[in-house]
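Hi U.,

Before I forget, here's the chain from the pilot set. I'm dumping it here mostly so it's searchable later in email.
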Amino acid sequence: MNVNCIAIDDEPLALEIIKDYCSKVVFLNLLKTFDNAIESIEYIRSNKIDLIFLDIQMEELSGIQLLNALKNKPYIIFTTAYERYAIQGFELDVVDYMLKPISFERFIKGVNKVCERMQLDAGDPKPDNAKAKPAEPSFFFVKTETRMERIENNDVLYVEGMGDYWRIVTKTRRIMTLMNARKLEEVLREPQFCRVHKSFFIALDKIESIERNRIKISDQYIPVSETYHKAFFDLVERKKLA
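Structure:
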């Protein structure tokens, strides 16, 4: 798979970094870079572009304004120094949202998401009367104090209720957020997650062991309550090999 891409950013150093990173990825074909969003419009309309690395805050025309102006939108990865546009980016269906300074490892993660989306979109066509199942998002946002925190689904170990708050425990951090349980259930769904107690959601693939009505994840023992006992052990039974 070859991915034709351009980069738009009013910071010369940011463009140089994207150019360097693209040169190291064999399937990325960086066609052109722009330091002005307005100058990119005609090029985007006249050329086959699969992916745009797009800065948000630029003079004259912002990345979000450019995206809204495009009729046929390529896949978009926002590259920005500002967290506050994350929710808006999610609503605009961008593939990824990378915060500067962008490491090469983070860059690779983003372009791999683009490849996965392209392969999914290029799958077998559905009959006209069939509804395509939307791809499950690989991350979600929670509010902590005055900012929105992005959390990758695969990083979550478990979530613990603490009064009116929930503590989200990941591989590297613990995040407190005020959210009702129903909203959390919409995000932490099967087959990746399961609720096992009024106060606990768990990531099924992070379970280390199950002993009677206790689950061990990392150094935490999590109880399975009577209310969620059957649903949880039915899931476990379906995953048993013997």
